Amino acid sequence: xxxxxxxxxxxxxxxxxxxxxxxxxxxxxxxxxxxxxxxxxxxxxxxxxxxxxxxxxxxxxxxxxxxxxxxxxxxxxxxxxxxxxxxxxxxxxxxxxxxxxxxxxxxxxxxxxxxxxxxxxxxxxxxxxxxxxxxxxxxxxxxxxxxxxxxxxxxxxxxxxxxxxxxxxxxxxxxxxxxxxxxxxxxxxxxxxxxxxxxxxxxxxxxxxxxxxxxxxxxxxxxxxxxxxx
Length: 230
Fold this sequence. Notes:
Blueprint: E1 22-25, E2 30-36, E3 69-75, H1 95-104, E4 110-112, E5 117-124, E6 128-132, H2 137-140, H3 152-165, E7 171-175, E8 183-189, E9 199-206, H4 213-223, E10 226-228
Parallel strand pairs: 4-10, 6-7
Antiparallel strand pairs: 1-6, 2-5, 3-8, 5-9, 7-8
Helix pairs in contact: 1-4
């Protein structure tokens, strides 16, 4: 294990994934996003970000020749808490909401319900194939757990090397840096094509929606985020 993330290797120097290190997200799998629906770069629940922002996110692979967009989503996990898509707004129900909240405000740990964000839950309508960065592949590559904790510009270079080496990949799965119990995916286009994953929308609420109050309060409490409500 290195003490820090080494520079991203040339793409052809990356180790070949072994069985189980390439993960298929099956059709019907759930994912969730917390995103700004207004502002300088407004998003939609089903769209990639096609802007290489000055401060990149962790796995912005825009340095790869085939990647012109990226989208991030949290996925529910048993370790992270229950995820009830039938009644997804009850108190204490959504591990993916907690992960989304903490990842979104990791620099400030303050979330304002009035800051023009929306929360979406959707299910895949087709399978996606991602490289699991929580697997031993990261150890063989010399990166270890630092891919989830190193400065984002450094991890973005690794993402670009991965996407260059395997342009058919839809993205990577990883442990959320801010919430070890949480799991997330970074999806890349054009490998993933069209909307964020060709998905079916199950839930869409703005953060100031009263129906989301209980779930947000639980997510903030369980992750130590300060929730501003007015």
